[in-house]
């Protein structure tokens, strides 16, 4: 059975909406900084830190994309953008954007570990609320 994690963009997040292209840019940035770390320690860390290629199908344009790996220890991770209607504590309703990270049934433990890393990275960059695969919540936004 597929597993899901969510990065929710709350009112105190760095931004209220996000596009698939912005998520791809953040993952490309992650790949770049881990490669630079590898260069500093004279080790090919970039290939280990991000063993995936970013791919997108025509029917998913603007809605979702996936990371596919040719490494035998990894399979794939899917990323999608969607919105939901939520009710705030004061009773007002608002539209909340979220990033859904899905591990398909064929995913490995390596994929789950990498997906957790990517989720934490994205949530920290966006100052979002991260709902992990194990249903725990991590708050990366300033709380009152």
The poorly predicted ranges are none
Distance between the termini: 37 Å
What shape does the CA trace take? Answer: globular
Q: Radius of gyration in whole Å, from Cα?
A: 16 Å
Percentage of residues assigned to helices: 25-40%
How much of the residues is beta strand, in percent? Answer: 25-35%
Produce a short descriptive summary.
The chain has 144 residues and is of the alpha+beta class. It has helices at 20-40, 45-49, 109-126; strands spanning 3-8, 53-55, 64-68, 76-87, 93-103, 129-131, 137-139.
What do these coordinates show?
By secondary structure, this protein is of the alpha+beta class. It is 31% helix and 30% strand. The protein contains three helices and seven strands, in the order βααββββαββ. The protein has helices at residues 20-40, 45-49, 109-126; strands at residues 3-8, 53-55, 64-68, 76-87, 93-103, 129-131, 137-139. A seven-stranded antiparallel β-sheet has the order 2-3-4-5-1-6-7, covered by helices on one side. Strand 6 (129-131) and strand 7 (137-139) form a beta hairpin. Helix 1 crosses helix 3.
Please describe the structure with a list of short key phrases separated by commas or semicolons.
144 residues, 7-stranded antiparallel β-sheet, 7 strands, alpha+beta, 30% strand
Record the SSE blueprint:
Elements: E1 3-8, H1 20-40, H2 45-49, E2 53-55, E3 64-68, E4 76-87, E5 93-103, H3 109-126, E6 129-131, E7 137-139
Antiparallel strand pairs: 1-5, 1-6, 2-3, 3-4, 4-5, 6-7
